[in-house]
Design a protein that fits this description.
The chain is built from 3 helices and 4 strands; from the N terminus they run E-E-E-H-H-E-H. With 87 residues, the chain is an alpha+beta fold. Helix 1 crosses helix 2. The radius of gyration is 17 Å and the shape is extended.
Protein backbone atom coordinates (compact mmCIF):
# COMPACT_ATOMS: atom_id res chain seq x y z
CA UNK A 1 0.00 0.00 0.00
CA UNK A 2 1.04 3.57 -0.61
CA UNK A 3 1.02 6.15 2.17
CA UNK A 4 -0.25 9.66 1.58
CA UNK A 5 -0.82 12.66 3.82
CA UNK A 6 -2.92 15.79 3.54
CA UNK A 7 -1.63 18.74 5.58
CA UNK A 8 -1.45 17.55 9.19
CA UNK A 9 -3.67 14.50 8.73
CA UNK A 10 -2.15 11.13 9.59
CA UNK A 11 -0.83 8.96 6.77
CA UNK A 12 -3.49 6.94 4.99
CA UNK A 13 -2.77 3.64 3.31
CA UNK A 14 -4.08 3.67 -0.26
CA UNK A 15 -4.89 0.26 -1.76
CA UNK A 16 -2.94 -0.93 -4.76
CA UNK A 17 -4.31 -3.13 -7.53
CA UNK A 18 -2.20 -6.01 -6.25
CA UNK A 19 -4.08 -5.82 -2.94
CA UNK A 20 -7.24 -6.96 -4.75
CA UNK A 21 -6.18 -9.05 -7.71
CA UNK A 22 -3.74 -11.90 -7.99
CA UNK A 23 -2.91 -12.53 -11.64
CA UNK A 24 -2.17 -16.06 -12.75
CA UNK A 25 -0.19 -14.99 -15.81
CA UNK A 26 2.09 -12.14 -16.82
CA UNK A 27 0.38 -11.77 -20.21
CA UNK A 28 -2.75 -12.93 -22.00
CA UNK A 29 -3.68 -13.70 -25.60
CA UNK A 30 -6.23 -11.24 -26.99
CA UNK A 31 -9.23 -13.65 -26.84
CA UNK A 32 -8.38 -14.65 -23.27
CA UNK A 33 -7.91 -11.03 -22.22
CA UNK A 34 -11.28 -10.09 -23.74
CA UNK A 35 -12.94 -12.83 -21.71
CA UNK A 36 -11.06 -11.77 -18.57
CA UNK A 37 -12.32 -8.17 -18.73
CA UNK A 38 -15.74 -9.19 -20.08
CA UNK A 39 -15.72 -7.17 -23.30
CA UNK A 40 -15.84 -8.41 -26.87
CA UNK A 41 -12.71 -9.39 -28.71
CA UNK A 42 -13.69 -6.82 -31.36
CA UNK A 43 -13.64 -4.07 -28.71
CA UNK A 44 -10.16 -5.15 -27.64
CA UNK A 45 -8.91 -5.24 -31.25
CA UNK A 46 -10.38 -1.78 -31.98
CA UNK A 47 -8.52 -0.41 -28.96
CA UNK A 48 -5.31 -2.09 -30.14
CA UNK A 49 -5.76 -0.64 -33.65
CA UNK A 50 -6.42 2.83 -32.17
CA UNK A 51 -3.24 2.60 -30.09
CA UNK A 52 -5.13 2.71 -26.78
CA UNK A 53 -4.06 -0.80 -25.75
CA UNK A 54 -0.49 -1.93 -26.24
CA UNK A 55 0.22 -5.51 -27.32
CA UNK A 56 3.51 -7.38 -27.76
CA UNK A 57 4.44 -9.85 -30.45
CA UNK A 58 6.53 -12.68 -28.98
CA UNK A 59 7.11 -14.47 -32.29
CA UNK A 60 8.74 -13.23 -35.46
CA UNK A 61 5.60 -14.17 -37.41
CA UNK A 62 3.60 -11.73 -35.26
CA UNK A 63 0.49 -13.86 -35.44
CA UNK A 64 -0.41 -14.00 -31.77
CA UNK A 65 -0.23 -10.68 -29.95
CA UNK A 66 -0.24 -10.79 -26.17
CA UNK A 67 -1.34 -8.20 -23.62
CA UNK A 68 1.01 -7.70 -20.67
CA UNK A 69 -0.68 -7.21 -17.31
CA UNK A 70 0.93 -3.76 -16.95
CA UNK A 71 -0.50 -2.64 -20.30
CA UNK A 72 -3.90 -4.12 -19.44
CA UNK A 73 -4.07 -2.27 -16.12
CA UNK A 74 -2.97 0.97 -17.77
CA UNK A 75 -5.69 0.59 -20.42
CA UNK A 76 -8.35 -0.20 -17.83
CA UNK A 77 -7.38 2.80 -15.69
CA UNK A 78 -7.73 5.14 -18.69
CA UNK A 79 -11.17 3.98 -19.78
CA UNK A 80 -13.87 6.67 -19.63
CA UNK A 81 -15.56 6.99 -16.25
CA UNK A 82 -18.77 8.37 -17.74
CA UNK A 83 -21.15 6.73 -20.15
CA UNK A 84 -20.78 8.19 -23.66
CA UNK A 85 -23.70 10.31 -24.82
CA UNK A 86 -25.84 8.93 -27.64
CA UNK A 87 -25.00 10.33 -31.06
Amino acid sequence: MTQTTIDDAPAVELPQLSDYVKFEKLAYAVPTFATLVEVSEDTIRRNIDAGALTVRYPTTAGRKPIVFIEDAVNWLRHLPTEKPSAA
